[in-house]
Amino acid sequence: MKEKLQEYLNKYLDNTIIIKFDKFRYGSEDASCTSFINEDEIANRIDLSYLDESFDEERNDNLDFQMRKCRTHKIDDFINKSKTETNFHKLLFKYIDDKNLKDSDVYNKVHIDRRLFSKIRSDVMYHPSKETVILLGLSLELNEEQVEELLNSASYSLPKNNVYDLIIRFCFVEGIYELKKVNELLDSYNCKLFLY
Fold it and tell me: Could you write out the three-class secondary structure of 10-60?
């Protein structure tokens, strides 16, 4: 299985620079996984961040009240036109209903706390962590497309430019839903594990 995972990672991480984060130096468990970033992406981030910052400062200094009001109106229009109707709560419980599962089947399988699941069930506005959404996807045994949709509904994704997200994606592609096996694959690349 590890050889197949290595092939999968190599497929998406071709022509990349390896950046290894030291969790002790940065004081974060989240930074304990090796990340891969394309050279062009690094150059774009540096150039764009510099340009955006200097451009915004000049523009903010020179804009009068009417220009700001117009810009705010354009932003409001853009947000209203672009906002999607898909909502995490609705989509999650649609998947649960489609699979005829009880709530306890879902949260027990991946060791999600019953109180947390109850909060997700009762609070339509609750915004779960990315880890929780992934665990729910594993519990529901979703395919790659379905977990992508569930993650997107909560404003997350599984980008193809870092090891952690590629391993998670690989598990959904290959139908690896058992938490122990997922953790073994994450551990083999020194990535953060799911706690249970």
Answer: HHHCCCCEEECCCHHHHCCHHHHCCEEECHHHHHHHHHHHHHHHHHHHHHH
φ/ψ of residue 35, rounded to 5: -115, 150
Which pair of tokens denotes residue 173?
A: 């592609």
Tokens of 7: 């092939």
CA-CA-CA-CA dihedral for 180, 186, 192, 193, to nearest 10: 0
What residue ranges in 48-196 does DSSP mark as E strands? none
Domain-by-domain residue ranges, the chain?
16-82, 88-187
Question: Residue 59 CA to chain centroid, in angstroms?
Answer: 33
pLDDT digits (tens, 9 = 90+) for 132-177: 999 999 999 999 999 999 999 999 999 999 999 999 999 999 999 9
